[in-house]
Amino acid sequence: MKSKKLTVVRTPDKLGDMGLASPRSSLSSVDSAAQHIQQELRRAIVTLELPPGAHLSENEVALRFGVSRQPAREAMIALAKLGLVRVVPQRGTVVVKISARQVMQVRFTREAIETAIVRQACARFDPMFRASIDTILAAQRKAAKDGDFVTFQLHDERFHAALAAGADAELAWQAVIDIKAHMDRVCHLTLLDQKTVLGLIAQHETILAAIDAHDADAADRAMRRHLTEVLRSLPKVLVDRADLFE
Question: Would you say the pTM of this structure is higher than 0.85?
Answer without folding.
Answer: no
